[in-house]
Design a protein that fits this description.
Helix content is about 30%, strand content about 25%. The chain binds iron/sulfur cluster. InterPro entries: AAA+_ATPase, ABC_transp_ATP-bind, ABC_transporter-like_ATP-bd, ABC_transporter-like_CS, Oligopep_ABC_C, P-loop_NTPase.
Length: about 325
């Protein structure tokens, strides 16, 4: 039996840009532009990139909250990217999402009990109100909230507590996969590590597989086994966490890591500043999409897109520096 839980093959999401009175398509925003990826059972895969890199769009496509322009998604070996909503329903139970903003993702008019019971009703996993209530109370205890939270409303809780409710809601259907879309970035730094620790504990307890999306490499480091770095809709580097943090290969990853503050005060790190802003995904640079900001860019980078190659065991990078024996500087 395969140990791959989720597989993406050549995934693309190109949003049309409409203009004029008749709303003609005048171009496309290439939010995700060809991603092939495996997520293994029980692992925690971090996806990192700046805002606009396409990481959240990727997460939504993997859960079939968005239908890809091109490419396929497989869950437990079954292709799910072409399933109707009805056929998709049993898979939805197995794949849940924890959203970034615990304020916006919980309906303020529903009690915590109703919010936790709603997925059980939708998926018809528990028939009686008493069973659903029992399960909701269990879930509250699982995420470290008192049973008495059941009759309260979201506004009665802090941000960290609301995110615990969001996690409990995601767990309610006993999923195999949880996609966290920046689940701690709206929280105070002091609360972030508590929520991350909780998610780590829950992963061990329930044998969950995580895809953890973040813009901050320090957040992903804590929770990931492997990390993928995205730039303008593509993965530019993917590796085991230690390999990526200790020996980053892609110049973009190097820059991101240099910006993470060191926990060791005796280590002086030099921050690599990138030139300019992230280019628009509606008009990405030709060749290597990073060449307009890369400190090592040379002529070939402007014309030819680098392919992903394996440089060390399980450490892949898309950069000409690793396939070209004598790069000539621009
Ligand atoms: Fe920089 Fe060229 Fe490598 Fe792209 S391919 S990251 S521009 S050196």
């Amino acid at each position: 039996m395969s140990n791959v839980l989720l597989e993406a093959k050549g995934l693309k999401m190109h949003f049309p840009i409409k203009a004029g009175v008749i709303r003609r398509t005048v171009g496309y925003v290439k939010a995700v532009d060809g991603i092939t990826l495996n997520v293994y059972k029980g692992e925690s895969l971090g996806i990192v990139g700046e805002s606009g890199s396409g990481k959240s769009t990727l997460g939504r496509m993997l859960l079939r909250l968005l239908d890809p322009t091109e490419g396929e998604v497989y869950f437990n070996g079954e292709q799910i990217s072409n399933l109707s909503n009805r056929k998709m329903r049993p898979y939805r139970r197995d794949m849940q999402m924890v959203f970034q903003d615990p304020y916006a993702s919980l309906n303020p008019r529903m009690t915590i009990g109703e919010l936790l019971e709603e997925p059980l009703l939708v998926h018809k996993t528990m028939n009686t109100k008493a069973d659903r209530k029992k399960r909701a109370e269990e879930l509250l205890e699982t995420v470290g909230l008192p049973k008495s939270s059941y009759n309260k409303y979201p506004h009665e809780f802090s941000g960290g507590q609301r995110q615990r409710v969001g996690i409990a809601r995601a767990l309610s259907t006993k999923p195999k996969l949880i996609i966290g879309d920046e689940p701690v970035s709206a929280l105070d730094v002091s609360i972030q590590s508590q929520v991350l620790n909780l998610m780590k504990d829950l992963q061990d307890e329930f044998q969950l597989t995580y895809l953890f999306i973040a813009h901050d490499l320090s957040v992903v480091k804590h929770i990931s086994d492997r990390v993928a770095v995205m730039y303008l809709g593509r993965i530019v580097e993917i590796a085991q966490k230690d390999s990526l943090y200790e020996t980053p290969l892609h110049p973009y990853t190097e820059a991101l890591i240099s910006a993470v503050p060191s926990t060791d005060v005796t280590v002086k790190k030099e921050k690599i500043s990138l030139k300019g802003e992230l280019p628009s995904p509606a008009n990405p640079p030709k060749g290597c999409a990073f060449h307009t900001r890369c400190p090592h860019a040379y002529e070939r980078c402007k014309h030819e897109r680098p392919e992903m190659t394996e440089q060390k065991d399980g450490h892949f990078v898309a950069c000409h520096l690793y396939t070209d024996s004598s790069p000539s500087p621009v």
